[in-house]
Design goal:
Pfam families: Lactamase_B_2. This is Ribonuclease BN (tRNA processing enzyme). InterPro entries: Metallo-B-lactamas, RibonucZ/Hydroxyglut_hydro. By secondary structure, the chain is α/β, with parallel strands linked by helices. It has one domain: 4-Layer Sandwich (Metallo-beta-lactamase, Chain A). The protein is built from seven helices and 15 strands. Strand 6, helix 4 and strand 7 form a beta-alpha-beta unit. Helix 6 packs across helix 7. The longest helix has 11 residues. It starts with a strand and ends with a strand.
Length: about 250
């Protein structure tokens, strides 16, 4: 199983990165986790639109889903279209939300190009088993555990600190964790995002093998966020950067 970072900028696209998007591949199957603002262009450096096996959305904030609008256009109008419908897994109401985002009638919305499914606690997508857990965020949001053979990747999506994330990440090979807030800032909102120390603490409690810090907004420094995560997690701490590849 291989993880390729497509976009890792938190909350908005940054000067060197699209917003959240990650490509997970195994056995020739390509699973895209989130497709945030600007990510579709970066994704096409790694595969063509018809090669997308499925898409999983952690939640429906624009920095995690809005490039589905561009994907809809490519699937409908690019040479060689129409292509087989691309499965999209997400929170309840994903189909309706994306139709509204492109000002489409709710019926059919994007359903002729994209095949929408609501997350279940466990589902099989290509060669992967995906386990989900609801997170703590202002909108319905999920952390995702991707399992392939005896390997596992857990992606936090966006969340405040919570025990469900620790349980989902138990023993994972990689925890891909957001760290959008600064440490030790009394103005940090509750139940919104993790700080680097939160990310490290969750990784420690879950006993993960590696922690990869991501979703750092462009107004914060990735290296600083990773260094702060090392305060609470003694294992390897790495930084997601655009087009970085992690073997799992």
């Amino acid at each position: 199983m291989k993880l390729t970072v497509i976009g890792c900028s938190g909350s908005v696209p940054g000067p060197d990165s699209a917003a959240s998007s990650y490509l997970v591949t195994a056995d020739g199957f390509s699973l895209v986790l989130d497709l945030g603002s600007g990510a579709l262009g970066s994704l096409q450096r790694h595969l063509a639109v018809p090669e997308i096996g499925a898409i999983g959305l952690s939640h429906l904030h624009p920095d995690h889903c809005m490039d589905l609008c561009g994907l809809y256009v490519a699937a409908r109008y690019a040479p060689g279209s129409p292509i087989p419908r691309i499965p999209v897994f997400g929170p309840p109401g994903t189909s309706e939300r994306m139709a509204l985002a492109y000002d489409l009638p709710l019926d059919p919305g994007m359903e002729e190009e994209l095949e929408f499914h609501t997350w279940q606690e466990v589902q099989r997508i290509g060669p992967f088993t995906i386990r989900t857990a609801p997170m703590v965020h202002p909108v319905p949001a999920y952390a995702l555990r991707v399992e392939y053979g005896n390997k596992s990747l857990v992606y936090t999506g966006d969340t405040g600190p919570n025990d469900a994330l620790v349980e989902l990440a138990r023993g994972a090979d990689v925890l891909l964790s957001e760290a959008a807030l600064p440490d030790n800032d009394p103005s940090n909102p509750a139940d919104l995002h993790l700080t680097p120390s939160d990310a490290g603490e969750h990784a420690k409690r879950a006993g993960v093998k590696r922690l990869v810090i991501t979703h750092v907004p462009p107004w914060f420094d990735r290296d600083t966020q990773a260094e702060h995560a090392r305060r609470t997690f003694s294992g390897p701490v790495e930084i997601a950067t655009p087009h970085a590849v992690f073997d799992i």
